[in-house]
Amino acid sequence: MEIATKKPELLAPAGDYSCFRAALKAGADAVYIGGQKFGARAFAGNFSDEEVVEALKEAHFYGKKLYLTVNTLLKQEEIKQLPDFMEPFYKAGLDGVIIQDIGALSLLGNCFPGLELHASTQMTVTDVRGAVFLQKLGVSRVVPARELTLPEVEALCRESGMEVEAFIHGAMCYCYSGQCLFSSLLGGRSGNRGRCAQPCRQPYRILTEKAGDECYPLSLKDMCTIQFLPELIKAGIDSFKIEGRMKKPEYVAGVTSVYRRRVDSFLADPENDKGVSEKDMHMLSSLYIRSKISGGYYYRHNGKEMVTLKQPGYAGCDDEVLRAVQTELLDKELSVPVVLKAYLHSEAPLRLAAWIMGEAEHAEDGAAGGSSVALEGQMVQTASNRPLSPADVQKQLGKTGGSGFRAERILLDMSDQVFLPVKALNEARREILEQLKEKQTAKWERHEEISRTPSCGKEDKESGRPEERKQTRLYASVHNAAQLEACIQEGAERIYLSHSCLYGMTEDFLRKAGKERTGSEWFLSLPVILRRDDEGRLAKIADVLKTGIFDGVQISSPAGLQWLDEIGWQGKVALDHRVYVWNRETYDFWEKQIDTYCAPLELNRSALFELPGEKQEILVYGNIPMMVTANCIRKTAGGCLKEKGKRAASENMVRLLDRYRTEFPVETDCGYCYNIIYNSVPLSLHAYLGEIAEKRVGAVRMDFLEEDVAAVRERIAVFRRLLNRKKGNEEPLPDINWKFTTGHYKKGAK
Questions:
Q1: With 60 as the cut, is the pLDDT of residue 272 above it?
Q2: C-alpha to C-alpha distance for 109 and 585, rounded to whole angstroms
C-alpha cells in the first residue's frame, strides 16, 4: 500500500461535558456525543440541548468538529419529534449526525440538506455494496462493521467514494452491531435502543459433542490498534474512532493523547517510524481495559485468542497513570493563539485590533482578513505625571486567562507621554476577545429557514391498512429438505428457503420439489452477512436464481438489494426482519422496491399495527435469532469444521448453556463463516392470531430451525386453524405441547 497523503481525523468519544473537554485537551480533531434522545448510549451522562449548542460553539472555536449520535431505531411517535430535536443543533452548525434508522436518515436528509449524514456501525455495513447503497441516500461517511479485515476496509476506502470512519480502540461487541437482540429478548433492554445489559459478558458452557467448562465465550477483548496504526493510515481511512462514551474523562484524555502522538509522529516521518513508547503502551493498558487487549478483526476473521475466556471485568487503573493524565492533560487550559494590536495616541480614542494567529499577516486599522475584529475605547489622554509604558500596555493586554485565547503577539503603535486607566485597557481587551470569539464561532452557524414539508415529520400518515379484510396468508421459512416437503404438504402460501439449503439440496431435487408445490411461492433467503470473500458463493446463488426455481429473494441487508440490482434480478424482493422497519418513513423508503417486509421483532402489538399492513409479515413462530457473529463458538471450543475440511449443516448445531441451565442453539454457517445464536425457546403467538388477522396483516410467518417433519406439520396445522377462526368464535385454544415465549408482542423493547 502507498502511504496516504491525507491526515486522518482523530475522533474521540464524550459521554458528558467533562469528557468533551478532555477530548479537546488531548488533541482530538472531532468529538462524538449523544443528546437526551435517540443515542445508543442511554446510560451515559449525555448532553442537554443547551450543552450540545455550547459544545458546538466551543468545538468550532478551537477548530474542531462535533458529531451527534442519532443511532437508535425510532418508533413512529419518536420519529415525528426528530426534526424539532435537531433544528437548534443544525442552526448552531452541527458538523454531522451518526444514524442507524433508514427512516431517520431519509427524514433528516429532507429536512436539513446542509447536514452531513454518517451511517452508524449499527447499520451493519460489511462491504462496498452496502456503502454504495447508502451513498444514494445522501450518506457521505460510513462507519463499517468492526468485524472487517484491513483489506476489506481498504477496499471500502478505495471503491466506495465515501469517507470511512473506523474504530481503532475500545470495547468490542461479540455480535455484529445492529444485529443483536440478546439483551432485548432476555431482559427487555434493547441494544438497538442504547440500553444493552451485556448478557455477552456472562458465563456459559459450550456444548458440542461434550460439555465444556464454564467460561466467557461471548466476551471479546478490548481493541487496541496502536501497534499497527501506520497500516491503518496507509489504508486511507478518513477518521479513526475511539470507543467509549460510557468511560471517564481520564480514559478519553489518556487514550486520545496516545493516538494523537502516534498519528502525528508517523506522518511527520513515515520512513523512520519510531513505534510506540513503553510509556504510551503502559497508559493504554492501564485505562479501563477489560482484562486484556487485542488487535480486533483487522488481521483475523475470528479466533479464540480474541476472546476473554476468564472473568471479563474491567481491570483497575494505575493511580500513577491517572495522576499523570490529570496533571498533563485535564488540568491544562485550552487556548487559541491571538494577535493584539493597540493604537494609543493623545487626544484620540484607544483603537484595538485582534485576529487569530496565522489567519492574517497584519491588521492595520483593524482591516485584517480571517477572524479579525477592531474596536474603539476610551479617549487617550496626555500624561501629566507617570505616562503609560509599552510594558504596562503589554502586561494588561496579555492577561487573557479564562478567555480561551492566549496573546501570542502584542503589537503597539503608541506615542510617548500618553495615559489611559488600566481599567479601560482591561475592558477593551475583554470586549474585543469576546467579539473575536463570537465571530470565530458564528462562521459555522446556519440561518436558512427549515423546510416543513410532509416529508419532514409534520404530517401524520395513515397506517395504509385496506378497509376490506383480506385473508391473512401463512408463510414459512425452512432450513432443510424435510421441512420444505412438510411445508409444501401443509399448503404454505410462501416458503423461504435458507441459503444453507443449497449446501444439501441439488438443483434436480429443487426442480422436482418445485413441481409438487401447489400455488406456493418460493423465495431464496440470502446470507445475513455479505463480505468481500463471498463473491464466488454469490455467483453460484446467481446461477441458481437464473433457473427460475425461485419466485423471489429475501434480503437481510441493503447490500443484498444492491447485489440483486447488479445481477439484473427481476423477481420479487422481501425484507427480512433484520432490515428494520420501525416507522412509516422507513416503510415509505422501501415500499416501491419490495413485495413484502417482515416486521421488527422488538415492536409491541400497538407499534406493529401502526405500520402499513398490506405488505407486512409478522413472525408468529420460531426461534428468534439473537446474535449474528463473525467469531465462532465452535472454533473457540477447538472444533472448527472448516479447518477439518467439513461444513456445518443446520442439524449439526452447537449449544450454549447459561448459568440457569438454559440452552441456546448456535447455527454455524461455515460457508459464509458466521454464527447465529438463537433464543432457547421459540416465539409463539398462536393465542393472538385472531387479533393479527383482524388488523388486516398481509401474512404471518413461521420459522423452522430444528423441528422435524411431524413438528412442522403439527404446528402449521394449529396456526392455520387459529388463523382462520371467525370473529366471535369462542372455541378454546388447543393444548400446546411446546415451550414458547411471546417475545415483545405485548410490551415491546425498552
A1: yes
A2: 12
Beta-bridge mates of residue 419: 381
Amino acid, res. 603: L
pLDDT, one tens digit per residue, over 336-355 is: 999 999 999 999 999 999 99
For residues 354 and 359, give the distance between their C-alpha atoms in angstroms, rounded to a whole number: 11
In this structure, which amino acid lies at residue 21?
A: R
Cβ(380)–Cβ(344) below 8 Å: yes
Which DSSP state fits 653?
-
For 314, the 3-state DSSP assignment is strand
- The answer to whether 221 and 306 have CB atoms below 8 angstroms apart is yes
For 506, phi and psi rounded to 5 degrees? -80, 160
The 10 Å Cβ neighbour count of residue 631 is: 25
Determine how β-strand 349-356 pairs with β-strand 204-207: unpaired
Q: What is the sign, positive or negative, of the torsion defined by CA atoms of 516, 519, 520, 523?
A: positive
**Angstrom distance (rounded) from CA 503 to CA 480:** 10
Query: How much is the pTM?
Result: 0.93
Taking the mean position of all CA atoms in its chain, how far away is CA 381?
63
Burial of 240 (0-12, 13-18, 19+ CB in 10 A): buried
Residue 177 CA: distances (Å) to CA of 171, 172, 197, 532, 713: 12, 10, 15, 18, 35
**CB 196: neighbour CB atoms within 10 A?**
22
Q: Which helix (H) or strand (E) holds 590?
A: helix 584-590
pLDDT the model gives residue 467: 55
Q: What is the rounded CA–CA span in Å between residue 633 and residue 707?
A: 22
Q: Residue 367 corresponds to which amino acid?
A: A
**Within 595-732, where are the H helices?**
605-610, 633-636, 689-694, 709-723
In Å, how far are 333, 430, 431 from 436, measured between CA atoms?
A: 19, 10, 9
Cα-based distances in Å from 269 to 3, 234, 711: 11, 13, 67
Look up residue 424 and give its three cell numbers. 479601560
Give CA separation, 107 vs 84, 168, 298, 325, 577, in Å: 12, 30, 34, 42, 21
And the C-alpha cell for 440?
470565530
Is residue 137 within 8 Å of residue 593, measured between CB atoms? no
Q: 3-state DSSP call for residue 66?
A: strand
Other CB atoms within 10 A of residue 438 CB: 13
Kindly report the number of other CB atoms within 10 A of residue 573's CB atom.
20
